[in-house]
Amino acid sequence: MKILPVLLIIFSSLPLSCKPETDENQLRYARKQYYLGNDYFSRYIEALRKIDKLRIENEKLGKSLSKLSLSGDQTVNIQSIRTSRAIIQKNNQTIEKEETLAKRYLDAALIELLKAVTSDPKMFRAYFEIALIYLKKATTEIDMGTRVQCYTGDEKKENREKSRSLLQKARKHFIHSAKEKDLKSQSYNNVSAIDLYLEEWETALGYAKLAISDLVYQDSHVAQSNIGWALFHMKKYSGAISHFRQSLLAQRHFCIARYRLARTYFAMGKTSEAETEFDRTIKQGYPCNGIQEAWLYGAMSKLKNNKLDQAKDYLKKCVSISPSSCVAAECKTLLKSTGD
């Protein structure tokens, strides 16, 4: 799973700045559309939370099923297995419904929020939420071309152009929202994340540094990780490691930083350290164990450390996460080269 940018969503009540010369009727209309759009956006977030909760439950049930299959009590096994499978099936059906609703809420939110900023160009909170929506649409498009399937040729080109267009729209709206003091750090950090996608390492580094310049910024661990990832791509590995460690010091369960730390060790040829950090990333469970690249690079680390059987297990798990993805194709190729 490509490390997606973290969506920094705040539900606190923020002032809605207005242009003094704007007609009062326009301001009222803007506020009305903002609150309507915000309501749709909140429903979208709630749908995502439900989906995450159900996926976590399914993962736990999956582990229980594995244990039951190893148990000697066949009577208990059959009933428990049937019950667990029924729950998983029901959860999957609910997840599918919530995903459909989430998309509708997101589209509806975008329509209303765009109306709000048209009527009041200084409604910075609306710009922020519009940017988040475009960012989500962009990452969904990227996932469709690399995670769900692995596009090639014209399909790949079209997918890339569409996702980059959405990222640019998100970036533009985050720049607008940064004019609001309370949104500045969050906005700049998201601009940094977008620039990482666009492979603009220098500007990504600059905006992440602007984000952490706010001493009370609560998500500084995300910005530290973005700084480290920019430095990684600039091959400044020592500096990257320092920032990943700072990120993990602030939030030890932030597995994106841990995965990136592992990648840095791997790039430096420190395969033992890399293997340890990939393992720790995966062992954190959902959603960290869904980072498909962690299984791929974890397997590569194990191969270099002469742990062939463990590497094969990692590669098989990599493929099972999303069999048609681009990363899965790499895992299949590597698995075949091991003689499996």
Cα radius of gyration in angstroms: 22 Å
User: What's the shape?
Assistant: globular
Number of domains: 3
Q: Give the averaged pLDDT, no decimals.
A: 92
**SS class:** mainly alpha
Largest sheet entry: none
What pattern of helices and strands is seen along the backbone? HHHHHHHHHHHHH
Helix content: over 70%
CATH architecture level-2 label of the largest domain? Up-down Bundle
Strand content: under 5%
Count the E strands: 0
Please identify the top-level CATH class of the largest domain: Mainly Alpha
Uncertain segments are 1-15
CATH topology of the largest domain: Glutathione S-transferase Yfyf (Class Pi), Chain A, domain 2
Q: Note the gap between the termini.
A: 24 Å
- The number of helical elements comes to 13
